[in-house]
């Protein structure tokens, strides 16, 4: 082997190494580029839904509650049953079996959900908190998994909830999901339930007159909700003064 061949071989090896480094840099650059692009897509996707939800609810805020969703004829007649559980408090996390789907009264946690939250999705709190809200005069619109899987119907539910923004006591309303893990399904063909814990009349102190109030609907109905909340206002509850 001549003396000239050795430097040539070294040059070839050097060239190969340089080419490999360049390829590695290009590969690294592509990975970074793809990662950045994916990160931006995730950020945009996360921000997109709140933006579209806000635009949707803004549209409903300009409407009268009674004009949102299905007519009241999509709902069954209001039913009641004797209520119990007033001031029957247990620690959060305690398992509470509720016989009705959904509950309108009963044993509940010793704390409740704040008034400023009107709509709940998959992040809904345990039932024990919401039943305490019922004791304080709230009306709750529960929607089942059929409604949850229907984008248009969910817009209506959000629109209804948007009508109750604010901390005025008359806005004691919440919309929350009811799932198969919570209990039995609603009656056949009914996918929405509205519940209220009535004291038997505003200012009524005789606990024997308390009743749970239910109204089931095939679709969310602002008209039916408005009628129900007029007949059973927040003052018609065991503890209307609580937030």
UniProtKB/TrEMBL annotation:
Keywords carried by this UniProt record: Membrane, Transmembrane, Transmembrane helix
Entry's transmembrane regions: 29-48
InterPro entries: DUF3105 (IPR021454)
The protein's name in its UniProt record: DUF3105 domain-containing protein
Lineage summary: Bacteria, Bacillati, Actinomycetota, Actinomycetes, Propionibacteriales
């Amino acid at each position: 082997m001549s003396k000239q061949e050795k430097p040539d071989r070294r040059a070839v090896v050097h060239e190969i190494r340089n080419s490999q480094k360049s390829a590695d840099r290009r590969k690294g650059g592509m990975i970074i580029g793809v990662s950045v692009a994916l990160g931006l897509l995730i950020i945009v996707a996360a921000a997109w839904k709140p933006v579209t939800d806000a635009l949707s609810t803004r549209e409903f805020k300009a409407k009268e509650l009674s004009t949102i969703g299905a007519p009241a004829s999509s709902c069954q007649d209001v039913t009641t049953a004797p209520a119990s559980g007033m001031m029957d408090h247990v620690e959060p996390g305690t398992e509470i079996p509720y016989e009705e789907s959904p509950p309108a009264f009963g044993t509940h946690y010793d704390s409740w959900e704040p008034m400023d939250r009107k709509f709940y999705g998959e992040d809904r709190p345990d039932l024990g908190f919401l039943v305490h809200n019922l004791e304080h005069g709230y009306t709750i619109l529960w929607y089942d998994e059929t409604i949850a899987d229907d984008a248009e119907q969910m817009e209506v539910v959000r629109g209804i909830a948007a009508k109750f923004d604010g901390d005025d006591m008359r806005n004691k309303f919440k919309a929350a999901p009811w799932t198969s893990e919570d209990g039995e399904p609603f009656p056949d063909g009914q996918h929405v339930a509205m519940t209220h814990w009535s004291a038997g009349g505003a200012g009524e102190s005789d606990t024997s007159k308390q009743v749970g109030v239910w109204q089931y609907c095939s679709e969310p109905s602002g008209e039916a909700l408005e009628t129900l909340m007029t007949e059973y206002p927040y003052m018609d509850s065991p503890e209307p003064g609580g937030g």
